[in-house]
Amino acid sequence: MRKNREIKVIFALLAVFFAGFLAVPMISVLVKSFTGDGSSISLAHYAEVLTGRGFLRALGNSILISVCSAFITTVLAFILAYTIHYTNLGKRYKWVISKAAILPMLLPTITYGFAIIYSFGKQGLLTQLFGRQLFNIYGFNGLLLGYVVYTLPIAFTLINNAMGYIDKRFMVVSRLMGDSPLQTFWMTILIPLLGTLATSFIQTFFLCFTDFGIPASVGGQFEVVASVLYTEMLGSVPNFGNGAVVALVMIIPSVVSITVLHILEKYNVRYNKISPIELKKSVKRDAAFGVLSGVILICTLCMFLVMFIVPFIEEWPYRMDFTMEHVQAVFEDRQLYGVYINSLMVAVITAFAGTLLSYGGALVTARSTVSGKLKKVIDSIALVTNTIPGMVIGLAYLFVFTGTWLQNTFPIIIVCNIVHFFSTPYLMMKNSLLKMNSSWETTAMLMGDNWLKTIVRVVTPNAVSTLLEVFSYYFVNAMVTVSAVIFIAGARTMVITTKIKELQYFNEFNEIFVLSLLILFTNLIARACFQKLAKMSRRKENIINMKKGRKMSLKRAAAFTLAAAVTVTGLGLTGCGAGPSDDQIIIYSNADEEAITAMENALDKNGYEGQYMFQTFGTSELGGKLLAEGKDIEADMVTMSTFYVESAQKQNSMFQDLTFDVDTIDEFEPYCAPITSQEGTIIVNTEMMKENNLPMPASLKDLADPVYKGFVSVTDISASSTAWLLVQALVSEYGEDGAKDVLTGIYENVGDHLEDSGSAPLKKVRAGEVAIGFGLRQQAVADKEDGLPIDYIDPAEGNFSLTESVAVVDKGEDTNPLAMKMAQCIIENGREELQSYYPNALYNGETTDAVNKSENPKVFPEKLTVDLLEQHQALSEECKEAAGL
Amino acid sequence: MLELKNVKKSYDGTPVLTDISLSIEDGEIVSILGPSGCGKTTLLNLILGIVDSDGGRIIFNGEDITDVPMEKRGFNIVFQDYALFPNLNVYQNITYGLRNKPEISSKEEVEELISLLGLEEHLSKRIGQLSGGQKQRVALARTMVMKPKILLLDEPLSALDGVIKESIKERIRTIAREYNLTTIIVTHDPEEALTLSNRVMIINEGKIAQFGKPAEIIKKPENGFVKKFILNQLEIKKNNIYTLFAGQLQEQAQVC
After folding, report:
1. What sections of A653-721 are H helices per DSSP?
2. Taking an 8 Å Cβ-Cβ cutoff, which residues of chain B contact chain A?
3. % of chain A exceeding 70 in pLDDT
4. Residue A280: its chain B contacts at CB < 8 A?
5. How far is Cα of residue A77 from the mean position of the Cα atoms in its chain?
6. Using a CB cutoff of 8 Å and minimum separation of 24, what contacts does A127-132 make?
7. Which of A48, A87, A225, B42 is deepest in the core (most CB within 10 A)?
8. Are residues A264 and A390 in the same domain?
9. Any idea where the domains of chain B sit in the sequence?
């Protein structure tokens, strides 16, 4: 058949694209699950993960919470859509509902967790308004709330769209046949929607199942698969083999969903025409649904209220004066303009390419007569992309594209976004095309159009509003996504969400909220534009005798949008944004803000200003990158926890020996020079201690006292190296067995406040969530100096420390000699300022400042290695088990 | 007897029907005939009760039903696209209403209807497997099972081809006769209207242009519209037929 030639070309293009950017990366994950980091094939990783403590429980938790969230979300979304389509409420109210329901979609999920903590936490905005905490936000409740809010816009969009295509005249028939209202509802609304409701359920299920952002902040001890995956892949000792296994286990449900959707397909009702009818007048129904929808939306949105307040407050919740300081600080950040332009450009190109791709796919499945097998391939691709978490795609790309020209480039980020979000746009497109009259192509072809002309002249003009919706969907999601991009964005290709993630490590909530607001407003403006265009095109689709003027204005508006997009793209590609140029030295670092500032000062004062660029990461993320990418890493220089530098060198031989003198007190490897030494200490919130009449602890052992139950927060050593400082202290003081007893006692007190991020306990102490935490000493010192109700107690067991070192990446011929000079400059000129924040002496000739000196600095008797860390992690796991976590 | 008294309807200020008054006797087949957009579908919806009138009264057998909701009026309709439930098979569609009112038709009555409409062999088929004429008959059966007091048909023949058209026409007439059922048909085809019904109501621009027996309309068209749009069409058709059968007619004439 002649007609199918073009369709087959489209199919081939799609197939090649997804083979290269979906199948190959996923196969590499599969391979990794058998080989791990070595090359021998074994089932060891499967055995380790599947028999491992907690994994099956986490899987059960994930399924439970995802099913609950998906069910609730689908019901709520249905109520909202029903209010819009089946009540006689005012147009304006309906407009508000349809806008408000999708609002949360315009924000990144990282923001959600913080919004929940700052709204419903012990010191949260809503908690203060109501005078008491409404519910415990950690664990099931917090997750459920986060997930429902997160997925509501997607479920609503799906159901709302499909409801618009139901032939309402069937309601008349049903009523005439004597059906009760309930039967009418069942026959004429629920049955035609079954397919969509199932799709919505499955969509939301997987969004919940695969999201990491929300459990990261409010998961507490309710462990889900996504957090296990994160710990395996980006814990302090990444195990890609185990991670790959977890990732594959996460994909199993996708097979189930394909089957379910296939079974439900026959319920997809196809109406010949959509006839609007006057709805029965019913004040009761209208009032009930109007109020219900209002309550749903108010509950959803009040969570975000805090975002508009906290950034304008000096220090929530202790100094409640209005200030513009935080907002100004964000806009004065010199990197911000470039990052913002990058985000915009990525979003626009993603939207263009993604819309084309999903349109192509939908044309194959919805408007062609090619064999069902080909159609099923595309349907399956869509489902698979939907079920593969962004994190997994990102990591798979890391495995496959590291070392190729695509590494850390904009194209790979864009491709990643397109693949990651393919499913929903495709389904939207397909639904819309399916519901168009099926004889258009034949009609147009009989009029002498070829296939392409038919698509351009008939199908596309009638699909413009959906195309614009798809465009807008891709744009918004590309703006808010972080999970996939975090692994593949480089220093030169930073986007705004990775910037937020970076800020997360510095606990910069104000900046996070300001940037979130920036994303929100960008998305709001973009959506408003697309909607205006879609409305105009819809009018065009409906009005037969359209005036010429309106047609022109639609075309002009479309042309304007296109031109704007091209300009933005051009700006980004030619590097007019503030992104770094190619010959700049890229420095990857896990250091804190103070250390970065100190290093920048040293470099700037010595003539290197503008010749380098810092990119900061969490310790475990940078660790993962070092181990996974080796010499292919984007960075020229790295500052990182010393033991990580050492194990990365052991595995990848990726660093050069330093060419300058490193005169340290303790001995260091020839390729690294220490920049800071960080100590752990006990941190308390003095107000919380007073309020709850808690005795001041003097040692870590004291934290095991049941009097502190529910008031303590520490970090999990399997996720963050900060917790190692605690475990080192316990093991060196009490021996392994004694340490186990104390740690078990501490874990029993900690409960839900066992954290994955090193700075999280301090964060919780600061927010008044707990009274006591274990964290980095210099951060507590700074808080205390800032006048916060924070104090610190150096534990009797001693202040243990971890060093961070600078190392220069060996890139063979491409090595930039400047990197070595800068490393030397940092060590020779930066130490003075660095030492003012991290007071321990590292080099001969330095002394530790008496005022800042911790009371009891100690060093672990054994050399710190990744092996030792793994031993201590095993010890901690035993204690967790004993404490019933 | 169905009576409409000064019924009006407008949408967003645009009048669609202005001051319609009429009465229809029991057992009569009445066609509402007019061009697209003349308001005939709105009139049908008003009688059925999907839309409320802006003024005037609707009276059925002496009872004012203007404010009686659709499902309580006891009328029923077959839509142009039949609106059969695609998730149910033919038999389930036909007996759909019996789930709610099992007493309304006996098993024998249903079987009689099925055989009257010739649907025995299709009962277990899905809706998608049926032809247009078969769908029409299923929809008719589904509606008839409910024993409507008035049967409304929205363009019942326009989607059907010639031979089927005649057979459905016949079945509609049979049903009206057998059940002494008042039947109101909306159509835009003058031939259909004038050959199927006892009386024809021609509507133009929201007003009744003429309401009378087919023979009266042919003989005494009351205004220019009826003449120009209704009779002209028939005249052309007639001439076409005459031309086609010219030879035959001549033979007949010679025989006489």
Report:
1. 686-691
2. 48, 50-52, 69-71, 75-77, 79, 81, 83, 85-87, 96-97, 100-101, 104, 142-143, 146
3. 88
4. 69
5. 23
6. A128/A317
7. A225
8. no
9. 2-74+148-224
How many independent structural domains does chain A possess?
4
Minimal Cα distance from A180: which residue of B? B100
The answer to whether residues A837 and A875 belong to one domain is: no
Q: What domain range is A97 assigned to? A: 24-299
> A475 lies in a domain?
yes
Within 8 A of B104 by CB-CB distance, chain A residues are 178
Strands B199-204, B207-212: pairing kind: antiparallel
Q: Does A272 sit within 8 Å of B142, measured CB to CB?
A: no
pLDDT on residue A572: 47
In total, chain B counts a number of residues equal to: 256
What is the per-residue pLDDT across A510-558, written as a single tens digit (0 to 9) for each?
A: 788 888 888 899 999 998 888 888 888 777 655 444 444 444 455 555 5
Question: Helices then strands (H, E): number in chain A?
Answer: 37, 13
Inter-chain touch A175–B85, beta carbons under 8 Å: no
Q: What superfamily would CATH give domain B2-74+148-224?
A: P-loop containing nucleotide triphosphate hydrolases (3.40.50.300)
Q: Is residue A596 part of a domain?
A: yes
Count CB atoms within 10 A of the CB of residue A467: 24
Domain identity same for A832 and A779: no
Task: Answer yes or no: is A321 within a domain.
Answer: no
B-chain residues near A273 (CB < 8 A): 81
Average pLDDT over residues A449-454: 75
pLDDT per residue over A679-737, tens digit each?
889 999 999 899 899 999 999 999 999 999 989 999 888 777 788 999 999 999 999 99
Contact across the interface for A177 and B100, Cβ inside 8 Å: yes
Query: Same structural domain for residues A569 and A590?
Result: no
Which of A176, A189, A277 would you mutate first to test chain B, the one with the most B CBs within 10 A? Answer: A176
Nearest to B148 by CA among B240, B68, B45, B72: B72
Is this model's pTM higher than 0.80 or not? no
Q: How many helices (H) and strands (E) does chain B have?
A: 11, 10
- Chain B residue with Cα closest to A175: B71
Same domain? For A443 and A493 the reply is yes
Average pLDDT, chain A: 83
Report the SS3 class of residue A105.
helix
Do residues A339 and A252 share a domain?
A: no
Question: How distant is the Cα of B191 from the closest Cα of chain A, in angstroms?
Answer: 27
Angle between helices A55-86 and A91-102 (to 10 degrees): 160
CB contacts, 8 Å: A277 with chain B: 50
Question: Do both A640 and A718 map to the same domain?
Answer: no
Would the pLDDT of A575 be above 50?
no
Q: Are residues A391 and A522 in the same domain?
A: yes
ipTM of the complex: 0.72
